[in-house]
C-alpha cells in the first residue's frame, strides 16, 4: 500500500484521503511525507464531517489542527449526554472560532438523549464564539440541536455573519426563545438571507413585511414549526402580509410543521389561503381531517409534500382522496395510519408527479418505509 501510494500523484492521494473518516486520514498523515502533504491539503478538508464519538481519544491530532484553516463546510456530530463527546465538540468549535475566517457552512447535530434540564450553555457558547469570528459564514444549521436557542445567539449570528444565506434554528425543542424583534434585526444585518427555519412565534407581520421589502434579495424558503406554547399563543401574521410576501417572492416555498400543542382554532388560523405551503407535516392531537381539507382547498397549486400522523378514519380517507384530486403537483404523500385502497388509487391516478408515498393498506411493523416510484 505504501509503495503504491508513493507512486500516486498528490491530487489522487488527496482525493482518496478525502473519502476517509478523520481517524484514518490522521493515520495516513503519519505514514510518510508525501502522504502527510496530501492528507493536509485543502481538497481533503474543504467539506469535513466530524463525529465526536464517545470512544474517541483525542479529537484532532495536533499536527492536523492547522488543517482547520482549509475547512469550508463543517458538519459536527456529538452526543451531549457523553461528557467526552461533548467536550471534544466544544474543543473543536473553540478551535474553529480561533481560525474561522474560511468557514462557510456549519451544521451541528446531536445524537442520543440529552441529560434532563440541560440547557446546553457550554455548546451554545462555543457556537456563539464561532459566529463571532466566522465573518464569511453563509450557512448555519442548528436544527438538530436539542437546546433552546435565544435572542442572544441570533443577534450574535446577525452581527458576526453578515454573509448568511441560510439559517435554521433548533426545531426539536418545546420552547421558543427567539422573539420577532431579533429576526427583524437579523434580516437587517444579513441582506442575502434566502432561507430561514424558525418557530412560528418568531414570525410577526413586521417580519413578513421586512422580507417583502423591495430591496431584498430573492427569498426562497421559510420553514416554520409550530410546536411550543409560544406558537399556540402568538397570533400568526395576517393573510394580507402573506399575500404581499408571495407577490414579492413568487418562488417562495413555505414548510409547515404542526405539532400536538395546537388547538383546532390555532390550526385554522395558521392555514391561511395566501401562505405558499409546499410542505405540510401534520402531527396533531386533535382533528386532522379539517386541516387536510383546508390544505386541498388552499394549497392545490403549491403543495409538494404532505405528511400525516393521525388515527385511521373513513373521514380522513375521504379527505385524502379529495386532496389527491386537487393537488396535481404533489410529489410525496406519507400517511402514518392505514388507509383504504381507494386512497392509494387516488394518489397514483391523480398525481402524475408522485415519486414517493407511504400509504399502507394494512398494519406493518414499524418503521414504515415509503414506496418509491421510478
Ligand atoms: C463540498 O460540498 C459542496 C456542497 O455539498 C459541493 O458543492 C462541493 O463540490 C464540495 N467540495 C469539495 C471539494 O468536495
Ligand atoms: C426540522 O429539522 C429536520 C432536521 O432535523 C428537518 O428535516 C425539517 O425539515 C425541519 N423542519 C422545519 C420546519 O424546519
Ligand atoms: C390558540 O388556542 C388556544 C386554546 O384554544 C387559545 O386560548 C388561543 O387564543 C389560540 N391562539 C390563537 C392565536 O388563536
Ligand atoms: C408527533 O407528536 C408526538 C406527540 O407529541 C411525538 O411524540 C412525536 O415525536 C411526533 N412525531 C414527529 C415525527 O414529529
From TrEMBL:
<comment type="subunit">
    <text>Directly interacts with SKP1 and CUL1.</text>
</comment>
<dbReference type="InterPro" id="IPR001810">
    <property type="entry name" value="F-box_dom"/>
</dbReference>
<keyword id="KW-0833">Ubl conjugation pathway</keyword>
<feature type="domain" description="F-box">
    <location>
        <begin position="2"/>
        <end position="48"/>
    </location>
</feature>
<comment type="function">
    <text>Substrate-recognition component of the SCF (SKP1-CUL1-F-box protein)-type E3 ubiquitin ligase complex.</text>
</comment>
<dbReference type="InterPro" id="IPR036047">
    <property type="entry name" value="F-box-like_dom_sf"/>
</dbReference>
<dbReference type="Pfam" id="PF12937">
    <property type="entry name" value="F-box-like"/>
</dbReference>
<dbReference type="InterPro" id="IPR032675">
    <property type="entry name" value="LRR_dom_sf"/>
</dbReference>
<protein>
    <recommendedName>
        <fullName>F-box/LRR-repeat protein 8</fullName>
    </recommendedName>
</protein>
Amino acid at each position: 500500500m505504501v509503495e503504491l501510494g508513493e507512486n500516486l500523484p498528490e491530487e489522487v492521494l488527496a482525493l482518496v484521503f478525502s473519502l476517509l473518516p478523520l481517524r484514518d486520514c490522521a493515520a495516513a498523515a503519519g505514514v510518510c511525507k508525501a502522504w502527510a502533504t496530501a492528507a493536509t491539503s485543502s481538497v481533503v478538508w474543504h467539506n469535513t464531517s466530524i463525529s465526536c464519538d464517545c470512544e474517541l481519544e483525542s479529537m484532532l491530532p495536533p499536527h492536523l489542527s492547522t488543517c482547520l484553516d482549509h475547512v469550508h463546510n463543517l458538519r459536527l456530530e456529538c452526543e451531549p449526554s457523553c461528557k467526552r463527546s461533548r467536550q471534544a465538540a466544544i474543543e473543536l468549535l473553540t478551535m474553529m472560532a480561533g481560525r474561522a475566517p474560511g468557514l462557510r457552512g456549519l451544521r451541528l447535530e446531536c445524537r442520543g438523549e440529552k441529560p434532563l434540564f440541560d440547557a446546553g450553555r457550554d455548546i451554545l457558547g462555543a457556537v456563539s464564539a464561532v459566529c463571532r469570528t466566522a465573518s464569511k459564514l453563509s450557512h448555519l444549521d442548528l436544527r438538530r440541536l436539542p437546546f433552546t436557542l435565544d435572542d442572544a445567539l441570533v443577534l450574535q449570528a446577525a452581527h458576526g455573519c453578515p454573509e448568511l444565506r441560510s439559517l435554521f434554528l433548533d426545531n426539536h425543542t418545546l420552547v421558543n426563545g427567539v422573539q420577532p424583534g431579533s429576526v427583524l434585526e437579523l434580516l437587517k444585518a444579513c441582506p442575502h438571507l434566502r432561507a430561514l427555519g424558525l418557530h412560528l412565534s418568531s414570525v410577526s407581520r413586521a417580519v413578513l413585511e421586512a422580507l417583502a421589502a423591495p430591496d431584498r434579495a430573492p427569498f426562497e424558503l421559510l420553514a416554520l414549526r409550530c410546536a411550543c406554547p409560544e406558537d399556540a399563543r402568538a397570533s400568526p401574521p395576517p393573510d394580507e402580509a402573506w399575500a404581499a410576501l408571495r407577490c414579492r417572492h413568487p418562488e417562495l416555498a413555505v414548510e409547515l410543521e404542526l405539532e400536538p400543542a395546537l388547538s383546532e382554532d390555532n390550526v385554522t388560523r395558521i392555514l391561511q389561503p395566501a401562505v405558499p405551503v409546499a410542505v405540510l407535516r401534520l402531527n396533531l392531537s386533535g382533528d386532522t381531517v379539517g386541516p387536510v381539507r383546508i390544505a386541498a382547498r388552499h394549497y392545490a397549486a403549491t403543495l409538494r409534500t404532505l405528511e400525516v400522523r393521525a388515527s385511521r378514519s373513513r373521514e380522513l380517507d375521504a379527505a385524502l382522496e379529495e386532496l389527491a384530486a386537487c393537488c396535481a403537483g404533489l410529489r410525496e404523500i406519507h400517511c402514518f395510519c392505514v388507509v383504504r385502497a381507494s386512497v392509494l388509487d387516488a394518489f397514483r391516478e391523480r398525481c402524475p408527479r408522485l415519486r414517493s408515498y407511504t400509504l399502507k393498506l394494512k398494519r406493518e411493523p414499524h418503521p414504515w418505509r415509503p414506496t418509491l416510484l421510478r
